[in-house]
Amino acid sequence: MEKTSTDAFPSTMNSSEKQETVCIFGTGDFGRSLALKMLQCDYSIVFGSRNPQKSSLLPNGAEVLSYSEAAQKSDIIIIAVHREHYEFLKELTEVLKGKILVDISNNLKINQYPESNAEYLVQLVPGAHVVKAFNTISAWALQSGALDANRQVFVCGNDSKAKQRVMDIVRTLGLTPLDQGSLMAAKEIENYPLQLFPMWKFPFYLSAILCVFFFFYCVIRDIIYPYVNGKKDSTFRLAISIPNRIFPIAALTLLALVYLPGVTAAILQLYRGTKYRRFPDWLDHWLLCRKQLGLAALGFAFLHVLYTLVIPIRYYVRWTLKNRTITQATAKTEDPFSTSTAWLNDSYIALGILGFFLFVLLGITSLPSVSNMVNWREFRFVQPTPWCMAERDSSVLRVSDGTFLQPT
Ligand SMILES: Cc1cc2nc3c(=O)[nH]c(=O)nc-3n(C[C@H](O)[C@H](O)[C@H](O)COP(=O)(O)OP(=O)(O)OC[C@H]3O[C@@H](n4cnc5c(N)ncnc54)[C@H](O)[C@@H]3O)c2cc1C
Ligand SMILES: NC(=O)C1=CN([C@@H]2O[C@H](COP(=O)(O)OP(=O)(O)OC[C@H]3O[C@@H](n4cnc5c(N)ncnc54)[C@H](OP(=O)(O)O)[C@@H]3O)[C@@H](O)[C@H]2O)C=CC1
Ligand code: HEM
Ligand SMILES: [Fe+3]
Questions:
Q1: Is 265 in the pocket of ligand 1 (CB under 6 A)?
Q2: Which of 68, 116, 217, 316 would suit a FRET pair with 396, their CA atoms being 20 to 30 Å apart?
């Protein structure tokens, strides 16, 4: 089969600046994407494949050999093969002795196997130095260059020299390596891409608790009390009136909880007299999920606005208006226009609209694509020192358990 090129940007650098040769096992999606990116950064690539003659769609400039031939060409071998097919590596133990094997694999489920894929690789090829890396970067992101949101590459391994060499490659590719320590961290790194919104758990449960609490409060106040007191059936309020009370209250409570941990952190730092000590776990977690709390608050505010907009078309509201008009007409009375009531009502609604506008503005400026466009001063004009910038700022160190340490 003829080889087709997917290399849109052939290397232009002088051959004297050529980087080392790297071997990639597996000519699948990930192997090809990584090879393309590495060729662009002037590495020489040798693929190892079960069928070197049949491999297609490989990037221009890459050589394809059998697994054992390819392994001899480089001392860094990236294993772009699924864990289920690692068995063949056993036969290559001799060739792979002393080489750096980069495990990039992911699983389909959290804790699918008792040991991490990287540790399994160590068992199969005991003489090699295994380094875990690249598993959180997708083949698509490597090809399209859409890596803005996540340039971080978690790296771990037991041999520090091997790890350093892999981290150098990561850096050359324009990505940010994050040393996660020994191969014991591999399991956590492999679980990382499989986690489902871990930071949403706390905001989700908190929102649910707030909604349930205010729901029962409103049911007692607006449904049970009128029924017990005057035998009035107000159950229809369950659909719109009560949710439209719960939503804005939940929005304001969650908004307060976005800014409260920052203040708590500041007070704690003042009390301790230093900012170079770790925050307690609960505060650390609370600080980290402010983005989610803020978005949940914005969601509730949105719901409140929608529920408010439908008020004029509600049967209950139309009936009340019609009934009042008829009562006034039959009694031949008139409701005089009250300027102060009009003022109060308009101001109330205008404040709601302006409040909502500010809420949306806060949300928009927190979006990474927007906040990346404005400078520090502009950002602080809308938001005080944003933690979300600190999240991406390399001056704040993220330690392996996900907590933040302040820069020195
Ligand atoms: C509608 C809405 C949407 C949002 N969307 C997002 C979003 O998409 N992404 C996102 O990330 N956030 C989002 N947020 C959260 C919000 O942007 C930030 O959490 C908020 O700007 C934090 O401000 P702050 O003043 O409370 O905290 P900060 O200014 O971060 O912190 C207050 C105090 O904490 C201490 N502190 C903070 N950082 C450090 C540090 N690096 N070193 C030492 N001490 C420190 C200091 O004592 C500081 O004075 C959203 C919020 C809302 C309301
Ligand atoms: N795709 C992605 O976005 C990402 C993938 N990964 C990881 O990269 C690894 C490769 O993924 P991907 O490239 O998508 O997978 P593919 O299925 O596209 O490619 C796997 C390659 O493995 C080789 N291989 C070796 N032995 C076997 C075998 N017995 N059966 C089948 N294939 C075999 C094949 O290459 P050949 O025919 O040349 O021998 C094949 O092309 C996986 O471990 C995955 O978890 C990690 C992050 C992201
Ligand atoms: C377009 C924007 C908005 C409009 C038109 C609006 C309008 C209204 C109206 C008409 C009510 C009375 C609802 C009722 O009693 O049935 C109300 C209640 C309320 N609104 Fe808004 N609002 C807006 C945005 C906001 C925002 C952004 C917040 C803050 C998060 C907010 C907070 C509240 C609160 C706390 C109540 C009282 C809920 C209660 O206890 O009954 N509003 N709003
Ligand atoms: Fe953020």
A1: yes
A2: 116
| 137 CA from centroid of ligand 4 (Å) | 19
AA letter at 189:
I
Do 131 and 102 contact (CB within 8 A), yes or no? yes
CATH 3.40.50.720 fits 15-194, yes or no: yes
Question: Can you tell me the distance from the alpha carbon of 76 to that of 71, in angstroms, rounded to the nearest whole number?
Answer: 8
Q: Residue 258: enclosing H or E segment and its boundaries?
A: helix 243-272
Give the residue, 398 or 166, on which the prediction is more confident: 166
Pick the ligand that lies closest to the CA of residue 248: 3
Phi, psi of 24 (to 5 degrees): -120, 120
How far apart CA 13 and CA 31 sit, in angstroms, is 22
Ligand 1 atom 31 nearest Cα: 262
| Spatial contact of 403 and 284, defined as CB atoms under 8 Å apart | yes
By C-alpha distance, which of 199, 157, 198, 197 is closest to 177?
Answer: 157
* Token output for 19: 């980087």
CA of 170 to the centre of ligand 4 (A): 24
Q: Kindly state the percentage of the chain with pLDDT values over 70.
A: 87
Mean pLDDT value of segment 350-359: 96
Is 80:57 a contact under the CB 8 Å cutoff? no
Over residues 229-277, the pLDDT tens digits come to: 999 999 999 999 999 999 999 999 999 999 999 999 999 999 999 989 9
**In the chain, domain spans:** 15-194, 199-405
Among protein residues, the one with the nearest Cα to ligand 2's atom 6 is 105
Q: Which two tokens stand for residue 197?
A: 């919104």
Per-range mean pLDDT, top range of 8-22, 49-63, 181-195, 303-317: 303-317
Return the ligand number nearest the Cα of 252: 3
Q: By 3-state DSSP, what share of the chain in percent is helix, strand and coil, each rounded to 5?
A: 55, 10, 35
Instruction: Decide: residue 268, CB within 10 A, 0-12 exposed, 13-18 middle, 19+ buried.
Output: middle
